[in-house]
Amino acid sequence: MTAASPATGDRPALSDLRPARVPGLRVSGPTLRGTTLIHFVQSPRGGGLLEVRSKEHFIISRLDGSRSLGEIGEQYAARFGAALGPKQWEQMLGLLYRRGLLATGAADTPDASATAATAAAGTGTLLNGNLLSGNARLVADAPALIERLYRVTAFARRRAVLIPVTGFLALMLGYLAARLGDLTDDATYLIDRPGLLLPVLTLLWVTQGMHELGHGVAGRAAGGHIEEIGLRWHWGTVLMYCRVEGVQFFPRRRAQVALALAGVFVNLLALLPFAIAWALVPSTGPAGRLLGGLVMIGVVWGLANLIPLPPLDGYKALGYALGIDRLATESRRFVRLSLGRAVRRGPGIADYPVRLRFLYGAYAAVFFALPAALGVAAVLASRRYLSDHFGSAAGDVPPAAVAGAFVLWLLGMVGARLRGRRGAKTQSPARPEPRPVAHPSPAEGNRPMPKHQTDSGIPAIEVREIRKEYGGVPAVDGVTLTVARGEFFGLLGPNGAGKTTLVEMICGLRRADSGSVTVLGASPWPRDVALLARIGMQTQSSAFFTRLTALEHLQTVAALYGLGGRTARDALDLVGIPQQARVLVEALSGGQRQRLAIATALIRDPELVFLDEPTAALDPEARRDLWSVLRALKERGHTVVYTTHHMEEAEALCDRVAIMAHGSVIACDTPGNLVRSLDAPTRLYLPAAKLTPEAALRIAGVDRAVVDGSELELQTRTPGPVLVAVGEAVGFDAVRTRTTSLEDAYLALIGMDGAR
């Protein structure tokens, strides 16, 4: 039995369902990113890559149609020590269904999907694109070309051929190393003669194209798909490229490593006849010196690709061999965390096992030391060459150029910082003079919390082109948005989208690299005590005085702010837990703790409140109960900025929502407008036994009728008349409807952004 849709009516129990993943679904092996194991998943329908962690991968790998969700749940609980509830199952199946990862019927055939994918990949025209824009497609049907090369070279890929050839190449490199001095002289001889150097470089450019075709053949041999062959403008020259798709799904790491090293292997193989000729002809003659220079430059050209620095082949091969994704990025992050811990700032590296500390630390040393060493070697070699040919004064040019470039780089960094500060000052509205926080008298502190008077003239939050990077990776990238006073504003997006960083910059907890932020008419940075008194914040990891009662906890917080005890009782009343006033904080339920966290954020009756997933980890009943508290905040005039992963919650509570992905806001509008932007049809579901698709299509207004398991799904843009007609035919009790929701709009927008 396959899952037709995550939303089901009167069907067997959820635990009895036996959903199956779509045929041809690709699931990768484990890959490390930082300290987390991830897996890549891709639908054969041509969808983008989906990253899942170990728990999600455990479930997906067992959705084969033969095991029920109950059986998978038992295995999951035994493996991870926690059971999945019905709501978690529904969310998981809903995500897989909308991503096209669950089988839904006969249309899910591997052949059809593969044909569609191949047709899509094979489209294109000769030299589609423009070199000035970066890339230009060179071959209209790249998969067909690589397939032909794959068949032609079949004999050469056998072990009986590969092993002897590899050994012979090793002997060649050993022989060349033994005669390195002669080769260096020959290379110098060639460099001094531009008329000879130009054809040599042209020949090496051709071998670079062979290098890329070698990647393509190795990728085809491992089961990858050749996406494109073309030319690109790179490092001041035009180079060929061959793009292999699906490397993450190769069955073995050694196949990934072989793909990365195949290009260098082809480079050396192309140089083999020239090396043999050089060894046979007289080394002092012009032909010998020409061949020696060609071999020397070609070997350096080829072996330079083995340097383990991005984006070279050696870096890719090392990452594949270690099973680590983004090795350079994660190593830099490890170094930042290590240095932060050394100065007692940041979380440190306690989460890193010893093996990862060694790997990331060792690669970080290579990453920083190797470019420096290569740069010094290049400067010294250039200095020596220029001194020998143009005099000692010319030899001083390379180190002077490097020193000048370094000074310019430093000045650029300082200038960027100064421009950022000046921009923040000039773009932000005038800040009011900071006022000391007055501690009210007990009488004032005991007054009931007033309802806020909103000022629609000045926005509560105004963000303009704000940016924040960590180690060159943008966390927030050019975000611009405005939140009106009294607005309930939702901030949605997947993990890592930049929501937390954006909120921290708005609150003044982090400083933006560029752009401007205005909160309640003032700049949050540098930190303003008067402004902080007007802001409340609830986080997922709110801190409590757990050995105190709920009332004592709030009274303690109120006393820290100079407020009276009555304020604590008002806050408890506002969030609806006055009966828990005498209950210890550690004895409160999860929902009650979340309410207490919100009460803590409201203790000073702030104008602006930030709520970070306040309903996370709550059961559906507790979540619904908390909604009334959140609605009360809006009715009192509070401006609320609210992050959540529950789409139905955002749809029910928020006036507007902003959807973030990859550090940018990709959509910002009311939930209703976002839903309407999909222009999706209404779906009606009824038992397939009660109405055939042919009969359904004869009903006026039915656009599509599909049998999905035991149900018939109808799609229509005129649901009223269709519902009446279907209800009269099969009975209204047998019909259920499903309209487009904010979750559908969210998934569509996130999917569109990921595909770009």
TrEMBL record:
InterPro entries: AAA+_ATPase, ABC_transporter-like_ATP-bd, ABC_transporter-like_CS, ABC_transporter_ATP-binding, P-loop_NTPase. One of its GO terms (cellular component) is plasma membrane. Residues 461-687 form the ABC transporter domain. Belongs to the ABC transporter superfamily. One of its GO terms (molecular function) is ATP binding. GO terms for biological process: response to antibiotic. Residues 1-28, 421-457 are annotated as: Disordered. The chain crosses the membrane at residues 160-178, 190-207, 257-281, 287-307, 358-380, 400-418. The keyword RNA-binding does not apply. It is a peripheral membrane protein. SMART domains: AAA. This is ABC transporter related. It is found in: Cell membrane.
